[in-house]
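wait is this the right file?? whatever heres the structure
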């Protein structure tokens, strides 16, 4: 399990907050003759997962392989490209690139149309009704684009199941192209009553479908895989080279189908779904400062029978000639402060953490012989903090003083209580080869910083929004590299206060971050800039060499925002009948 540690040089503990700027942001509008295609969930699509898919569907599609390729699909299922002047920000027109065949009318259970660009010359589309298209677009980076041509179109899921295209990427296999598509849909869960009550009545299903280019330019379906799991997903991305699928979820996902190789079920599946409880050899619980490990031993155990060796990153506990626990630790300890005691056959080892407040996801890396027990004091504190959610008495609103002290956070700032993970699934083993611990970190948004890389992720660390760029693991390496490439100061705290937010996004150069509400307003937070003349804080007297600005833009429309894309100079916003361009950086 990999843990993300921000780079200290990209953090600013003395950040003073954002200063409201009254400088206007130029806004250019273009009214659409035929509005954007947008449908709402049907009566059968009532779950939280359905609501999330429909409400957070971004109808603006950026071509990562070009600088100015921004598209949407109108009500006539025509793919329209937005034409604008990137220097001035003015919107000029839209250009029809291709019209998706409309083979069937909208009916209950359909999804919104979706578009993805797996390479410089290919596009993948879904009509939301169950048909997938692979289209030859030609070189989209050139000024004169060729006419789009359909290479493949068919129903690819069972029972004419509708879906959306979550991601796609092109690869080469023996000098022939392959297109890997990840299709997402929500369907009714097929689990027992106990699991259904805890994880919901619907599952998220991901179809990993591989298409191969044949002779004479024909395309055919080569391989079909399927993953499923309860709950929603925050991140779905095909790794460059298409050797793995990266997935962030609050609940575990697993392969359930593979047309190339059989899926080996573990003992729990072979036993009719009943898991035989494994007897744990020890228990451990943790607080913010220390970890207590407990072993049960014979009643006649003496202190001389025990050997405990604690180092910064390694632990060894032995009873006579038997090793009880040994291996590398997940995080660092204060070896000199750790203690142990044995009484009436009970051995307790108290380990002191080097980093106070860091909650460990595991004790010894890879060890499954122990059971993690929640600290009763910690559980009581969580119940106390959340008591207002089920109290019959009105709770008084608590104020928050200026500054960003973690002791002053409100309830909306509480870290998630689920053990979310970001997993890298390999198709050969049908298992997660690498996992990143996201416990306690709020997922803020995703951003495509470079076409040849995985999308970056923005996570909340304390009050900041840290942007992480995942890299491809090296051959034979257990480590999954994640690079901390930038920080939006106090953005985690800021986003928590925006209750009407719908989209959060940033450009590839990380110069600003934007929060777009469902209707009317956009908040822009710029990175700190060096001041031409040094200023002094009137209250503290401290000199201020740079400042970060906040700008509020009123969109002057009552139409719902359907899509957003941030480029280094322009923030594009799509409503049902209008395109808006906010000239952020002239």
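ok assuming it is, sequence goes like this
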């Amino acid at each position: 399990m990999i843990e993300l540690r921000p780079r200290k040089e990209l953090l600013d503990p003395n950040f003073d907050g954002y200063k409201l700027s009254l400088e206007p942001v130029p806004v250019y509008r273009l009214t659409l003759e035929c509005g954007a295609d947008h449908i709402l969930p049907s009566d059968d699509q009532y779950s939280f997962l359905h609501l999330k898919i429909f409400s957070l569907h971004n109808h603006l599609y950026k071509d990562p392989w070009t600088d100015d390729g921004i598209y949407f699909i109108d009500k006539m299922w025509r793919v329209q490209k937005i034409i604008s002047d990137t220097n001035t920000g003015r919107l000029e027109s839209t250009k029809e690139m291709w019209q998706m065949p409309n083979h069937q009318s909208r009916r209950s259970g359909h999804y919104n149309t979706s578009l993805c660009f797996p390479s410089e010359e290919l596009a993948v589309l879904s009509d939301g009704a169950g048909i997938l298209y692979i289209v030859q677009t030609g070189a989209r980076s050139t000024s004169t684009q060729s006419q789009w041509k359909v290479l493949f179109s068919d129903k690819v899921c069972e029972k004419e199941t509708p879906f959306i295209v979550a991601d796609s990427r092109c690869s080469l296999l023996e000098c022939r192209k392959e297109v890997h598509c990840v299709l997402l849909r929500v369907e009714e869960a097929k689990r027992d009553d106990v699991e259904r009550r805890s994880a919901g009545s619907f599952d998220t299903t991901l179809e990993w479908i591989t298409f191969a280019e044949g002779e004479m330019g024909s395309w055919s379906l080569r391989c079909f895989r399927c993953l499923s799991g309860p709950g929603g997903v925050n991140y779905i991305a095909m790794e460059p080279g298409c050797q793995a699928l990266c997935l962030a979820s609050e609940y575990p996902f697993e392969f359930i189908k593979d047309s190339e190789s059989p899926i080996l079920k573990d003992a729990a599946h072979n036993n009719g779904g009943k898991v035989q409880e494994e007897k744990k050899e020890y228990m451990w619980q943790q607080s913010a400062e220390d970890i207590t490990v407990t072993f049960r031993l014979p009643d006649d155990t003496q202190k001389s029978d025990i050997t405990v060796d604690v180092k910064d990153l390694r632990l060894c506990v032995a009873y006579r000639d038997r090793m009880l626990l040994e291996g590398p630790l997940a995080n660092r300890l204060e070896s000199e402060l750790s203690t142990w005691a044995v009484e009436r056959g009970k051995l307790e080892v108290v380990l002191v953490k080097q980093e106070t407040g860091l909650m460990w996801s595991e004790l010894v890396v890879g060890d499954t012989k122990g059971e993690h027990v929640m600290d009763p004091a910690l559980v009581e504190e969580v119940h106390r903090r959340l008591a207002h959610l089920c109290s019959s008495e009105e709770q008084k609103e608590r104020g928050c003083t200026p500054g960003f002290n973690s002791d002053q956070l409100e309830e909306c700032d509480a870290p998630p209580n689920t053990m979310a993970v970001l997993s890298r699934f390999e198709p050969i083993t049908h298992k997660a080869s690498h996992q990143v611990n996201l416990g306690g970190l709020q997922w803020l948004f995703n951003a495509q910083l470079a076409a040849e890389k995985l999308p970056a992720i923005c996570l909340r660390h304390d009050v900041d929004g840290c942007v992480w760029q995942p890299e491809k693991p090296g051959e034979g390496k257990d480590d999954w590299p994640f690079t901390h490439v930038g920080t939006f100061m106090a953005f985690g705290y800021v986003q928590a206060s925006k209750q009407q937010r719908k989209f959060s996004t940033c450009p590839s150069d990380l110069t600003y971050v934007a929060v777009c509400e469902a209707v009317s307003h956009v908040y822009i937070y710029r990175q700190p800039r060096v001041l031409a003349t040094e200023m002094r804080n009137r209250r503290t007297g401290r000199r201020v060499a740079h400042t970060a600005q906040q700008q509020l833009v009123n969109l002057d429309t009552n139409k719902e925002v359907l899509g957003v894309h941030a480029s280094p100079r322009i923030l594009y916003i799509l409503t049902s009948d209008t395109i808006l361009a906010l000239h952020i950086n002239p």
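Residues 41 and 51 are 7 Å apart (CA to CA). so i think its the right one actually
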